[in-house]
Write a structure and sequence with these properties.
366 residues; alpha/beta; Rossmann fold; Glutathione S-transferase Yfyf (Class Pi), Chain A, domain 2; 6-stranded antiparallel beta sheet; 6-stranded mixed beta sheet; 15 strands; 41% helix; globular
Length: 366
């Protein structure tokens, strides 16, 4: 699986962009705030319909324009595919696969698998629980259409239950209807919990050896799924804590409040790990993610590295570059770094300046 080309129209700071990618290593370099990350973001959007930054659609459209377009051409199992995405300010985005419009987002998932690695990911360990839940959901949605459907339905029911809790303040008799939402919340919440638990179990099978290698055998790591509620206690807890929910006018129990704990040598890395340890955990997590996606889809994912190499020391860079040498990688950086030249055959190099790109070098590796 690899990307052949990308076309953008009125996307962020790009009026028009047409770029081709090699199936191996591609470099986008230039000063900050020139549009390098925007290119990676557009690829991620074409794969998932969402911005990795969490941006709203209207924020992605070039200033002064009403809509934006993304066209991504990929090759998968020797078959060419084309993803067209039309982003509009005040309407839902439109998506077509191979020229045929799709009605549901789930039809897109699985066509292309993208792993995004940015400096923000290096701090996922020390950030709040929402960041770690987001990591789980973004990857699981790409590899499991069923997970996306269950998660979307869960959040829809959650919002409806929260709205009811607010209305009960004014109409106490509405409390009699909450059992309907409780049963649906439990039904879909349990499905989300089970998929997350399975995903974390598979990550644990992989991440131990990776982390041990990065730390020269000095550290052992375990990912602990810190469930907000156990499956068999979910229904009862919703009933028992109804007064708490009414007090907050929101649901305080469920997988929307889950977390992950990264235990290093038996201690919580978020609370007790040094900055260096936390970065190593984050790198181990991403490298484990790459291996796991390979195993699940029986193909190589596409890796987007957004200015992350400069954040890693030489040992961590070496380990990451060794892991990704056989998959298509698109790397952004502020300078055309010598350490990359020395360790990776580079096939495409583009200089990005204020929404324009120029191909500056082609190596013998292509």
């Amino acid at each position: 699986m690899y990307i052949e080309s990308l076309k953008l129209n009125n996307y962020r700071n790009y009026k028009n962009l047409d770029i081709e990618f090699d199936r191996n290593t591609n470099i986008l370099y230039g000063d900050n705030a020139q549009g390098k990350t925007n290119i990676l973001e557009s690829i991620y959007m074409a794969a998932t319909t969402k911005s990795h930054r969490g941006s709203k659609d209207k924020e992605i459209i070039k200033f002064g324009e009403e809509d934006a377009h993304i066209r991504l051409c990929i090759k998968k199992s020797d078959i060419n595919h084309k993803i067209d995405m039309h982003i509009r300010k005040n309407k839902n985005k439109g998506v077509a696969i191979d020229g045929i419009p799709i009605r549901r987002t789930t039809e897109l998932f699985g066509l292309i698998n993208v792993i995004f690695f940015s400096p923000e990911d290096l701090s996922i360990i020390k950030n709040g629980p929402s960041e770690r839940r987001r990591f789980l959901d973004l990857e699981l949605c790409q590899i499991s259409r069923l997970y996306y459907q269950n998660l979307a339905t869960y959040h829809k029911v959650l919002n409806q239950r929260n709205n009811l809790l607010k209305q009960i303040y004014y109409k106490k008799e509405l409390l009699e209807t909450i059992d309907i939402w409780n049963s649906q919340l439990v039904e879909y919440g349990i499905k989300v919990i089970r998929e997350r638990n399975n995903f974390i179990s598979m990550l644990n099978e992989i991440i131990g050896d990776i982390h041990s290698n990065l730390t020269s055998g000095k550290e052992k790591i375990e990912i602990v799924y810190d469930k907000n509620v156990e499956e068999d206690e979910f229904a009862k807890t919703l009933i028992d804590k109804i007064n708490v929910d009414l007090n907050y006018s929101s649901t305080q129990t469920g997988p929307h409040r889950d977390d992950i704990i990264f235990m290093v040598n038996g201690m919580d890395a978020r609370k007790f790990g040094s900055q260096g340890q936390q970065r190593t955990v984050a790198l181990s997590l991403k490298m484990a993610e790459i291996k796991l996606v390979k195993r699940i889809i029986n193909d190589n994912p596409i890796l987007l590295l957004d200015d992350v190499m400069s954040e890693l020391d030489s040992k961590r860079r070496d380990s990451l570059l060794e892991e990704i040498k056989d998959i298509q990688t698109i790397i952004t950086c502020t300078g055309y770094d010598d350490f990359i030249k020395e360790q990776v055959i580079i096939n495409n190099v583009y200089h990005v300046t204020d929404g324009f790109i120029i191909r500056t070098e082609e190596t013998d590796g292509k």
